[in-house]
Amino acid sequence: MGSVAGIFIGSFVVGLSGAIMPGPVLMVVVGQTPRRGFWTGPLVVLGHGVLESLLVAAMILGMAEFFSSSVVLSTIAVIGGVVLLYMGVDMLRSAGGLSLITGTGSFSGAREFHPVLAGVLTSLSNPYWTLWWATVGLGYMVIARENGAAGLAAFLTGHIMADLVWYSVVSSLVAGGKRWLTDSIYRGMIRVCAVVLLFFALYFGWHGLNVILS
């Protein structure tokens, strides 16, 4: 773990264990891949990774305490809940007109979030993502900094690579699903993803309001 290679491997494994857990990012990748294709996953990770790089830079500059503040986390939870509510309702509303076979249908027409922007928004909307970086992520960064800039680069690269590998696999499976998925099964998957997003929206919003009101 102390070497640059060890930091990269450790960061990749921990990042992968978090990436494979169902969450808002996964729901968006599954929802947009049939129309946009394989590159949906990598593009979502690009937005996600840019945001994580900025967050790491902010923490290096001494803002870890700010990001772990209950006020900041609760505000993120409320705003994030609204964003996820919009996405979830839109997916649910649009599901009936989507076709995996022909690639027709979309979410919000011209207002559909680009995958890179979706990667940013779904990350920002999740208060647990911020909390993870302010606790577990910060702990890894402390260890990685013992190897200087190379250690921090290895940590961040390993973490983002874990996301890239996982969501590329997801995109590949969903994009290739045209060979074995019917439209009815696909629409059912979209509705399930929409319901999951609505759950996250309500949970995040409720949690954030609870903290603010208390």
Which secondary structure elements does this structure contain, and how are they paired or packed?
Blueprint: H1 4-19, H2 24-36, H3 40-60, H4 64-67, H5 70-94, H6 115-124, H7 127-144, H8 148-175, H9 183-213
Helix pairs in contact: 1-8, 2-6, 2-8, 2-9, 3-6, 3-8, 5-7, 5-9, 7-8
Keywords, please?
single chain, 214 residues, mainly alpha
Contiguous uncertain segments of 5+ residues:
106-111
Mean pLDDT: 79
Discrete helix count? 9
Q: How many structural domains?
A: 1
Outline the biggest β-sheet.
none
Instruction: Let me know the number of strands.
Output: 0
Cα-atom Rg, whole angstroms? 18 Å
N/C terminus separation? 41 Å
- Broad structural category: mainly alpha
Proportion in helices: over 70%
Strand content: under 5%
Explain what you see.
The protein has one domain. The chain has nine helices and no strands. The N and C termini lie far apart (41 Å). Helix 5 crosses helix 7. By secondary structure, it is mainly α.
Give a nutshell description of this structure.
Helices cover 78% and strands 0% of the residues. It has helices at 4-19, 24-36, 40-60, 64-67, 70-94, 115-124, 127-144, 148-175, 183-213. The protein starts with a helix and ends with a helix.
